Amino acid sequence: MSSKRLWIYIGIFMLFCVSIAHFIFQNYLYMRPCVQCIYIRYYMIIAGFGAIFIAIFYKQILLYIFGILVFSYGGIWGIIESLKLNTIHQAIANANPFGVKGCLDKPIFELNIAWDEILPSIFKATGQCGLDMPVVPLDVKFDPIQAYLIELYQDGWYLIPPLKLINMAQISIIIFSIALILGLVSLILRVKGRK
Predict the structure, then answer these.
(1) Rg of the Cα trace of the chain?
(2) What stretches of the chain adopt beta strand conformation (E)?
(3) The pTM is what?
(4) Segment 83-137, tens digit of pLDDT
């Protein structure tokens, strides 16, 4: 596989994850995103667009390096915010009120850009940190699949809900880690000349 193609796949993968979080979990299953979830989503978008930017400007070394910096920034900060959310999940699971720290009511983005006001459906925090179960409006009628999934995630989002295995923060750590590892592989492929 070529390095350039791998960057495209990484970018698409990151943006696909954001789309699943927004369209399926937030809009279809009524899981309200908390501030930490919004930060994770924000850094996934940065990493995703950084990877696509790298693929577009693959042969222009300065823009390529800029893309690497943007991608790395999104990936590293995404892991940091995911770790914070995981700490909050663990504190809630252990009924430790002192472990729930750092979750604001409103996200603060770099350069004070109010993304939550510019694109509220994607970046506005409407949930509480560490509580990622569906919050369903009373007047909503469900289709059978929607009703099944809402019931499945009633105790919170888990990769395997019946076992409560891998919460939303942990899967985010895994996603960012995979993206960063694949980014490193792509850099190595470029150095070895597999463009």
Answers:
(1) 18
(2) 158-160, 165-167
(3) 0.92
(4) 999 998 888 877 766 666 667 778 999 999 999 999 999 999 999 888 889 999 8
Amino acid of residue 64: Y
Rounded percentage of the chain residues whose pLDDT exceeds 90? 75
The residue length of the chain stands at 195
- 8 Cβ partners below 8 Å, 6+ apart? 51, 52, 55
Domains in the chain (CATH in brackets) are 3-191 (1.20.1550.10)
Q: Which two tokens stand for residue 174?
A: 């895994």
- Reported as a pLDDT band with limits 50, 70 and 90, residue 50 is very high
CA-based nearest residue to 66, from 48, 51, 76: 51
In angstroms, the CA 37 to CA 20 distance is 13
- Rounded to 10 degrees, the C-alpha dihedral 123/46/37/79 comes to -160
